[in-house]
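Chain X:
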Amino acid sequence: MTDIPRRAVSRTAKLAALPLGFAGRTVLGMGKRVTGLASDVISAEIQQRTAEQLFSVLGQLKGGAMKFGQALSVFEAALPEEVAAPYRQALTKLQEAAPPLPAATVHKVLAEQLGPDWRDRFVEFDDTPAAAASIGQVHRAVWRDPGPDGGSRDVAVKIQYPGAGDALLADLKQLSRLSGMFRAIQPGLDVKPLLAELRERIAEELDYELEAESQRTFAAAYADDPDIFIPEVLDAAPRVLITEWVEGIPLSQIVREGTDEQRNEAGRLMAELHLSAPERAGLLHADPHPGNFRLLPDGRLGVIDFGAVARMPEGTPEPIGRIAALALRGDADAVVEGLRAEGFVSPTEPIDAAAVLDFLRPMLDPIAADEFRFSRAWLRGEATRLASPRSPAYQLSRQLNLPPSYLMIHRVTLGSIGVLCQLEAKAPYRSILERWLPGFAPVA
């Protein structure tokens, strides 16, 4: 069916081989250090070779390895360009569609999940998938509406790959042994909390009935909204989800060839969704991939795929907005006090408050002015500032911590910023924060 390794022993062997290659490169680095090469040159070479092997293997495996690679992608801005380049190439492969399931397998899953008379629920069903990803594929169909009036409508039928859950969990268990490799690529990145968070989300993402519940919550929160459209859920089973079909321009297409107007509007709408959802729905859409959004003919942003969400019943934590506002006002001592209280800074370790403000301030450029245009150039500039071992920002980052309670918010925010930079979108982001982010009072 596919050349992607499916047997557990094959997948484990590929992942287990990674630390051996890493060990060899570390010895290489030690040998070059003896010959007098600069340590930062050695570090960069080890980083690049490690990244190339790591992301190559992740790309071959799909499943949990693919999920982990996609989650790790939000940290790309913190990587040196020579490391990020092979990483981006591997990530492109990670995001390509997996080979489709044979039609007979699709029919078997539908019969198991919806019953032997599953065909009676559809006027038409296209056996060729319209889209595919790491744990499932989507088919287009025409749904037969129940009730005396009959009728029909176009739907998306999401079908989970058989055995996807076992592959995901096995991959994550193996990947948890590779934390040393990731420290070589980005010394300030602790992947263990990231893996722990992913493990928690995997069980949810595999449960399509839970995804249906999340999507219904979003749909109710944004019913008749002039900016955001959430498709209706028509039916759900543990491994099959049927929703209203969304017709529009994928953001991935707008990234490639959209007009300035489309780019700017898509960016504004994505920011509106990201910031308003915790307050309106008590949920955060946690998979900000361009393929999960459509710009509809009526101008709204269509949102699909609610398998990955963060439950935030109390909304976005107030300290995020308050500390951002304090930083924009230049109150360094209050910023450090707030960061200490939330666990970003050690309660006992001394830290230079002015240096912390210098570290944070460039990150807040998008909300310092009435309007801001995200761009790859801005992102590359921040990557250079944060990733160079000789940079003061890099040195300070080693004194900062990312509390587990903020990991999902941080990951989704970085992912959303990455998409905005791909779009090169200009919008009034500060006013969106002022409307939706608790604690973020207007800045003079």
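Chain Y:
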Amino acid sequence: MRSLPLPLALTARLTPVAVLACAGWALTSGPAAPPAAAHRSAPRETPAGPSSAAPSSGAASKAYATAPAPCSSVPVATVKSLVPGAATSGKEIPSTDTRLRRTCSWNALQGYDYRWLDVSFEISDSAAEAKREYEQRVGEKSGGGAVPGLGDAAYSVVNLTTEDKQQTREGVVLARVSNALVVVTFNGSDFETKKAPGTDEINKGAIKAAKAAVGALGGGQPG
């Protein structure tokens, strides 16, 4: 296969660690531009989230003192299906406090198809604090919809951006379980056709990863 010249947007996305180190740790909007920019200006597409149930109400009522290991929060089979060609071990992003905030990223370019997945955990002092943070972030990402049966509350949104004629579609899922926030970002591009994957593919992929991540909260220490 001939060498593929990567767009500037992809080049920027392949160096997130240095940028995140300057900020202290990776917040949950996912990787760097172009998708981050999409949250500020791109029109939103409202996905229809599946209604299959995730953890029981008993599990959702627990308070957590620590974040689980993010790179083991998504099953290997799920990583392979969502990010073909990526190292299944993932890459944990440096954090100023790994007890409260942890993020893992997987990304790969296979042929001309590029995929990126981020999973983040944030632990607040109380469920009320986590609820306020969740509601604030949902308010900043208008145009999406609720994901029934996932944690205490969950929300997904998908957006499409175009940079240098290259489309990128990104899905974000926010889920709250007691005092824990789970944030999943999943996006993709096709550098041959310049098109992005469909809304349904990105939305379902992000929700699938979010369900696994919410389930992984059982590995954290209850408060």
